Amino acid sequence: MKFSRIQLFLSGTAVLVAIAGCGGRVSAQPVRLTLREAIDRAQAYSIDAMTAKHTYLSQYWQYRSYKAQMLPSLSLSGTIPDFDKSYTSLQNAVTGEYNYVDNYAMQNSLGLYLQQNIAATGGNIQLYTGLNRLDQFSPDRDVTWNSAPVSLILNQPIGGFNQLKWDKRIEPVRYEKAKYEYLESMETVTANAVTLFFNLLVAQQDLAIARQNYANTDTLYKISQERFRIGAISKNDLMQLELQLLNGGMSINTSKLQLDMAAAELKSYLMYEEQDSVVLEIPENVAEIEIPIDEAYRLAFTNTSFEYRNRISQLEAEMNVAQAKANRRPQATVYARFGLNQVAGTIGNAYRNPLDQETIRMGITVPIFDGGVAKGKVRTALSLQEVTQAEIDKERIDRKQDIYLKVMQFNNQNVQCSISAKADSVAQERYDLSLRQFAGGKISVLDFNTAQSERNTAHTSYLTELQNYWNYYFAIQRYTLFDFLHQRNIAASFDATSLEK
C-alpha cells in the first residue's frame, strides 16, 4: 500500500528543511537519503558498526590463538654466552669441609624444540635436538662438547584438570557465538539508524507544518482584518487569530531547533560532515507481510547467538565442576625422555657413536586433609551449575515472550499504518475545506483551529505508525537474523572472511 500524501506535502519544503538542517547554510549538493540508504551507511561507517567489527575480530584472533595451540610449534632456545669467573664454595664429600675454588669457565648452548600439545590427555610431546659447549679456562684450558642429536620428551599430568580438553569444547562454540553477536550488533546499528532517521523525519515534518500553518494563518489574519473593519467578525476572533499567528512564529523557531538537533544526531551517527545538509525521503510503502510466529520462534532459538551463549554457560559450569573435582583427586606428573647423547672434545666427535639417554621421573600429590575446602568448592560449583541452568530456562521463557509480542505488534502494524494514512488524508481534506470556509466567513476561528490541530495530529500519528512498523520489523530481524521481506537468512549469507582480512 502506498502513502504519498505527506511526501507530496513535504516536497515543496525540502530546500527550506535542508537549510535549517545545516544551520542556515546550503551545501552544494544536499544529501538525499532513503531509509535503506541511511541503514546501509550506518552499517558501513558508524562508530557502533566499527566497534562491532573489532569486537568480532578480537574473538576471531582469540580463536586463532586457540587453534595455534593445537598445532605443532617450533622454538629455538639458548644461552650465548654464560661466562663465570668467581670463587665457588665446594664441600668435601669425605671430610665435610668447605673450600673455595676458582671457577673460570664459559658455556654456550642451543636447543631446537618441536612441540605438540595433546588435547585428549592434557600433556605435550617434544622432539629436541641441542648442542652445548663448555670452555674451561682454569686450571687448564679445555673445551668439551655435549650433543643431544635427537630426544623425545613427554610431559604428562595424570588425574589433574585438563584445560586443553575443555578449550577444545568451548572455544569453537565461543567463536560461532561471536559471528552471530556481530550480526546482532549490526541489527542494533540498524535499529539506531531507523530511530534517528525518523526523529529527523518528524522534525522535518513539524517544521514544514509549522511554516504552512504560519503562512495560512497570516493570510487569514489579513483577510480577517478587512472583515473586522466592516464588522463581519468580532474583535475576539481577530485577536485569537493574532495570538495564533504569534504562537505559529514561536512554533517555527522551536521546530527549527528540534530539526537542527535531530539532523546533528543523524549526521554524527552516519559520519557526515557538519556542513552537509540532509534531506530525508519518506518510505513510500510498507510491505503487506505477516510473520509466522512458529517460524519466528524457530529462528530465534536456532539462528542467533542465544543458544551458543547458553551452551557456553553450560560448558563453563561443567568445566568448573570438573576442575573442583580434579583438585580433590591424587595427581601425578610423568616426565620421560628418550634419545641419544654424546660428550667429546671436538664438535665432530660429539656426534659420533652417540649413547642412549633415558630419563623417567614421576611426581605425585595426594590430598590427605584440607578441612573440607575442596569438598566445599565442589559443592559450590555444582550449585552454580544448577543456577546457570535455571537462568537459561528463564531466559528461554522471556525470549519466547518477547518474540511473541514483537511479532504480534508487527503483524498488527499493517492495519495501523493503513488507518493512520486514511486518517491523515481525511484530516488534510478537512483542513483544506476549513481554510476555504473560514476565508469565506462560513465557520468560526474555533472550528478552523480544531481542523488545523487534527490535521497536525494526523500527520504526526502517521509517521509514528510508520516508524513503529520499521522498529518492530528490525527488532524481529535482530531476534531471528532473518530478512522476512526478502526471505533471506542473514546468518547464512554472512561472509566472515571479509572482516577477517
Overview of the structural elements:
With 501 residues, the chain is an alpha+beta fold. The two termini are 43 Å apart. The strands form three sheets. The protein has a six-stranded antiparallel beta sheet, with no helix packed on it. Strands 1-6 form a two-stranded parallel sheet. A two-stranded antiparallel sheet has the order 9-10. β3 and β4 form a beta hairpin. The chain contains eleven helices and ten strands.
| Mass-distribution shape | elongated
Report the sheet-strand fraction.
15-25%
Report the order of strands and helices: HHEHHEEEEHHEHHEEHHEEH
Please count the beta strands (DSSP E, at least 2 residues each).
Answer: 10
Main sheet properties: 6 strands, antiparallel
Cross-sheet strand order for the largest sheet? 2-3-4-5-7-8
How many angstroms does the end-to-end distance come to? 43 Å
Helix content: 55-70%
Low-confidence stretches: 1-28
Short recap of the structure:
This protein has helices at 5-11, 14-21, 35-45, 47-69, 163-229, 235-270, 293-302, 306-326, 373-439, 445-480, 497-500, and strands spanning 31-33, 73-91, 98-118, 123-136, 142-158, 278-280, 331-344, 355-365, 482-483, 488-489. It has 501 residues and is α+β, with helices and mostly antiparallel strands.
